[in-house]
Amino acid sequence: MFNVEVGFQLYVCACVYRPPGTVTSTFTDQLPVSDLFDQLQLMDIPLVALGDFNVLGFAARQLDRRATDVFHQHGLQQHVTTSTRGDPASGNILDLILTSDDQPSGQLVSEVTVHSVCFSNHRLVKCRLGVPPTPPTIVTYSYR
User: Fold this and answer.
1) Is the CB of residue 135 less than 8 Å from the CB of residue 111?
2) CATH classification at residue 12
3) 121 CB contacts (<8 Å, ≥6 apart)?
4) What is the tally of structural domains in the chain?
5) pLDDT digits (tens, 9 = 90+) for 99-142
6) What band does 75 get if pLDDT is binned at 50, 70 and 90?
């Protein structure tokens, strides 16, 4: 987890890995990430949580309902809609990008794309972060 500060706005980015397996009450009730979601929601800090959540549902390209309930309970939006493992049409969405996306200036995450890579059985997930760029510091020197 790391913080990104742009101007006076603080963003929290969390990388998540959940080992493969059935989604149980350990995930939905006792997950440390759930505690993190609770704390950030109380502090009103924008969050980007991304990684291999391994919360596949009963059908292709669906997420486990218990996991999506946790995400909705914490006001998180899931942005990946294409399979990230297996066949693009019938594979699973294992890798997610979640945000507390209530930014007044627009979406915090946009342009989510999924690409095949030669070094993994997962696909690469790319996105554009809607974080305004920090203006450069202008330094002027005078010489005689």
Assistant:
1) no
2) 3.60.10.10
3) 85
4) 1
5) 886 655 557 888 999 998 888 888 999 998 887 777 788 999 99
6) confident
